[in-house]
Each structure stands twice: as C-alpha cells, then as structure tokens.
Known about the structure:
The protein is of the alpha/beta class. The chain is 41% helix and 17% strand.
Amino acid sequence: MVCLLYSPxxxxxxxxxGATTGELKLRERLYENVVNASSADFLTxxxxxxxxxxxxxxxxxxxELICHKLQQIENGDVKRLMVFLPPRSSKxxxxxxxxxxxxxGRHPNHEILSVSHSDQxxxxxxxxxxxxxxxxxxxxxxxxxxxxSDVRSAGKWQTNQNGVYVxxxxxxxxxxxxxxxxxxxxxxxxxxxxxxxxxxYIKEWYPAGLRTRLMPSGAIVIINTRYHEDDICGWLLDSxxxxxxxxxxxxxxxxxxxxxxxxxxxxxxLQLPVGTSYFPEWKPDSLLRVDExxxxxxxxxxxxxxxxxxxxxxxxxxxxxxxxxxSWKHSEPPDxxxxxxxxxxxxxx
Length: 349
C-alpha cells in the first residue's frame, strides 16, 4: 500500500516496511513542491503550519474561504474584510497568527499593526507570530526572512529587512506606527460592547487613531465577536449602507458571516446544506445541538444568537420594546375601564 504523508515535519511516501531510493527521491520532490507552494499559497501554508499551533487542527470549508479572502488581502484585490464566526472556529489562529507570519514572509519590509481589546491579548498574538517566523519550517519556506536579534519582544519585533510588527491594546498609544495591514481582533471587549461609553470610545478611536495609521494602499481586517448590534462592525457597515449618494465608497467592506447553523447565504458560500453545522469535521450537528441547548440554558438565547449565529439582538430586546413604555406626566393615574396584568416568570436572562 502506498500513501502520502502531509504534515509540518514531513511530506513523504511510505511503502510497506520501508522506502526505496526512488521513493525517497519522490518524497523529497513532494516536500520541495509543498514548501514552494506554501510560500505563494496561503491555504497551503496554513495546512503546513497550523498543526504547530493546534495539535488536533481540523480543516473546514470556512477555513478555506477565509484563506482565499486573506490571499486577496495580500495581493491587493481586497482592502477591507470582516470575519464573523462562532467561537473556537480557528478564526484568530488563521487571521491573527498564521496570516501575519505568511504576509511578513512575502513582504518582509512591510509593517503590520495588530490591535486587540487588551495589551495582553495583542501580545499573545504577537508572540505566536514571532515564534512562527522563528520556526525552522518557516525558515525553509522563507529562507531569506529572519528576526532581528535586537528587536524581538512579543509586542514589537522587526525582520532583517526592516519589516515591523506592532501589537497593541486598543487604549495603547499607536501614534507614529504605520500599517500596510491592520489586524483588529476583538478590539471591543464584551464589557465595552454593552457599554455606551465603551462603544463610543471605539467609534472615536477608529477614524482618528487606527485609520490614520494606514498606508495609502493599506488593508484592514476585522475579526470580531458580535456581542452587540452597534459594535465596531455594526457601526461601520451601517455607516457604509447609509452613506450619501455623493460619497464614494472606494473600498467597500467584504464580510464573511458564517452562523453556527448555516443560513442560505452561508450554505451557498460553503457548499453545505442549509440548517446544518458550519464545521461538520469538528462540530457535527449532534454536538452543535448539545452546545446550543447548554449555552441557551446557562447564558440565554441572546448570547447564542449573538456569538454563534452572528445576529446580535437590540438592547431593548426582540419581544418587549423599551420604547413602548411611556412616562405618565400627571399626578393622578388615568381613568381605566379595566386593568390587565400578565407575568411570564419563565423568561431567562
């Protein structure tokens, strides 16, 4: 029996108890082909390098879709991208760890700015990207790209060709930093998402802080957990949709929106049946159904709808509207023919 092995440390051919000289040469040729492909094709790079970050890494069609769009970010065909997926979908691994490493391999003289809601999360991403570039496999794929030994902290490091990677929390000063690519991964925490002041801060920070750091031909990628309909993504998309006719949208936002249970649009994107799991290789329908029941029981339907279905509900709720309740301006209540009071104490949080 002959089989091909495809992993971060070997691509080879095994036959019986050993391999002939010809088979070893074939294995070497296959290995060279995959290495060469990894330097130009992001999806191949992900297949090679992702197991270094996730021991039980599973490919999914949504990952292939994300890789295709990020490839377009690298070659300049796409300038604005948003990615909405349920938790534990490998979206941050692909977008905020593997893509910056691959991009720096292809553009070692460029600048990347990675921003998250906290310095700690941003530094975690920076450390992963730095360690990937310092990995032997990466050096095989991009032999001319190295880290400078004098500037290589987790939050800021440079390549031997003057490329710069900076990781920062959203409240950290980024003045003076530039970005050919700006990666925004959860720049709005759950606490900020449900705080009007927190949302306002991000809306003021984005145009005055982040946007001014972008190079003329730079790109922005936002990976976001949809806690609130008026988060940074909801605000940006709404602003684009309601722009005046005179406004020219030069770089419209492209959105990858994949709910846990596939709607018609997502099913068409992934070529999977409507109403099934978005990630059947790792989270088949039966396991996803268990997740839904437990999350709704402990966190409420709103949490499931926002984080897993990418459909955050309004603050006032989807059943009883806050606007229905009005203040009575007089000292005495109005005359009423009858009063009806109903209570449904089964409402969850």
